Amino acid sequence: MIDLNQVLQEKIALLDRQLASAKFTRDHAATPTESGSDKTRQNAEQLMDSLGDAKKKLKLLELALNKLPPFNHLATPNTLVTLRTPLGNKEFLLVPEGLGGRSIGSVFLLSVESPLAKSFLNQKVGYTFSFNGGAYQIIFLHPNL
What we know:
39% helix; 2 domains; Chitinase A, domain 3; 26% strand; elongated
């Protein structure tokens, strides 16, 4: 089992560290009156705004994780999917947008918004499809308990 809440908390913790670093940089940079051309303070504030927006999105994702549908023998979020690919069998965990793009052990976290996931989302075991010129098949679905 892969704990998606833990994955999300790790992302939030990383953002918190980045926010703290940007705040430190901003607070210790020269003010506009002290330096006519130094943009360090301005850049740090822009970074803090961007990181704050990203953190808000992660907080919304946290709410969405608590509302994931139960396993229904279809390729849906929080389902472990084994695909037969041109390169051999690969394991994926379908996750909401914002949590994909990394591996945990041999399982790749695949966003449901990714082109590959869209190719087989809501399908059953045995479903075959083409992706990037290769043949793929769902060979196993399992709940991520």
